[in-house]
From TrEMBL:
Organism from which the protein derives: Mesorhizobium tianshanense
Catalytic activity field: Hydrolyzes the link between N-acetylmuramoyl residues and L-amino acid residues in certain cell-wall glycopeptides
Lineage, opening ranks: Bacteria, Pseudomonadati, Pseudomonadota, Alphaproteobacteria, Hyphomicrobiales
A single Gene Ontology CC term: outer membrane-bounded periplasmic space
Name under which the protein is recorded: N-acetylmuramoyl-L-alanine amidase
Cleaved signal peptide residues: 1-44
Chain ranges passing through the membrane: none
Domain MurNAc-LAA: 258-412
């Protein structure tokens, strides 16, 4: 076929030689035979996975992340600490994602993605503190155009994040999507050595000064001074862990305040405010809990004003769709609400013996800052800066001391009742 014998002048066999033309023909026949035996691999299967879109929706307490693909991705993911990150490994992927879509928002501090080489690409989500991965699913798009990964994360405590890391290390070191295997960070986690934890939230701050009194008193200063007084009294009791959402003149989004309470695993969140009202004769303290339906028009008007505070820094986040809105509304849990109502009732009783209260002092409205799903929360309006007597009291160290002591006493009763219920349960 491409080889021929030859002889020397004596007629002895002298070896073989290559016939180039015949050899090329033989190679062509071998190639054709190989192609018939092994069909060519699909070029589409060899092409990189295409990520064709990315969306994030939610706030600093709960986020949903969705990324679309042209075909089903083989996903593996794991958690890392320092900073808190979710790492999603993908097959080699071509990312066609808009920079504005991956801009930090809500619970996500940063998004990075790229090719690692050796057929692997990676998406990295950095959280604004610790978080839990509630779900990570690979889903087929309803219109048949491809697939998507849907990731739900929510603010969690450092202890919960560390427990998820430990669980991850004990299993495979990473996990696949939820519909193909287990997920990290689910299930109840014990709280060894956990002390009753209070988070105090001084309302407003930074460029958002809040209400302003008749004599120029600014709400953000009053609330911070009172919060510091309350913190010091609780710390002196030696029975609580106490944190503040802010201890400087700092602007904080409402959902960031909720996130801080959740990440500290707070047993109670107390948001401190001092409002103004058109009727100058109205005065006294009020205690609010959360409710989708306001107890009265005045409570709803106050909630509307407080909920607008995020717009002061031009940072308002609108819900991208009804599904996310429903998720956030569903965060209001019945048991948490019951505890909030119980503490509000106790607090009103304690405040009534030391400071003046408004008529019907226990009220409710849809305050965003009170919507943590697992943290009993109240908002305390210390008084009205629009009333000269209330304004003077709010500036009085003696009055602040009495009010702070009443709240401290109410917390002691509430914590004792919760401890007793826990021991009995």
């Amino acid at each position: 076929m491409g080889l021929a014998a030859f002889t020397d002048k004596g007629g002895r066999a002298g070896g073989v030689f290559f016939c180039a033309a015949n050899f090329r023909a033989a190679c062509l026949l071998l190639l054709i035979a190989a192609c018939l035996a092994f069909p060519p691999v699909s070029l589409a299967a060899e092409a990189p996975l295409a990520a064709t879109g990315y969306k994030m929706a939610g706030d600093a307490t709960k986020m949903r992340i969705v990324m679309n693909f042209n075909r089903e991705p083989d996903v593996r993911w794991f958690l890392l600490r320092g900073p808190h990150r979710l790492v999603v490994d993908l097959p080699s992927t071509k990312f066609a994602i808009s920079a504005k879509d991956v801009k930090a928002r809500g619970l996500v501090r940063g998004v990075r993605y790229g090719d690692l080489g050796e057929g692997v690409s990676r998406l990295i989500l950095t959280g604004k503190g610790p978080f839990a991965v509630d779900r990570l699913d690979v889903l087929k798009n309803d219109d048949g155009s491809g697939y998507r990964i849907a990731i739900d994360i929510s603010a969690a405590s450092a202890r919960e994040f560390d427990a998820a890391l430990a669980n991850q290390a004990l299993t495979t070191g990473s996990t696949v999507s939820s519909d193909k295997g287990g997920r990290v960070g689910t299930g109840p986690i014990s709280k060894p050595g956990h002390r009753f934890t209070v988070v105090i939230d001084p309302g407003h701050g930074g460029i958002d000064g809040g209400a302003e009194g008749l004599n120029g008193t600014v709400e953000k200063d009053v609330t911070l001074a009172f919060a510091e007084e309350l913190r010091d009294r609780l710390a002196a009791a030696g029975k609580y862990d106490v944190f503040m959402t802010r201890d400087t003149d700092q602007f904080l989004r409402l959902d960031d305040r909720v996130r801080i309470a959740r990440q500290h695993e707070a047993d109670l969140l107390i948001s401190i405010h001092a409002d103004t009202i058109r009727l100058k004769g109205v005065r006294g303290a009020t205690v609010y809990t959360v409710s989708d339906k306001a107890s009265d028009p005045e409570a709803q008007a106050l909630a509307d004003r407080e909920n607008l505070s995020d717009q002061f820094a031009g940072m308002e986040i609108k819900d991208d769709n009804k599904e996310v809105t429903d998720i956030l509304i569903d965060l209001i849990r019945r048991e948490t609400h019951s505890f909030s109502m119980s503490f509000a009732h106790t607090l009103v009783g304690q405040l009534s013996t030391s400071v003046g209260l408004i008529n019907n002092p226990q009220r409710s409205a849809s305050f965003k800052v009170l919507k943590a799903p697992d943290v009993p929360s109240v908002l305390v309006e210390l008084g009205y800066l629009s009333n000269a007597k209330d304004e003077a009291q709010l500036l009085s160290a003696d009055w602040r001391g009495k009010a702070a002591q009443s709240i401290t006493d109410a917390i002691a009763l509430f914590a004792s009742a919760r401890a007793g219920a826990g021991a009995g349960g």
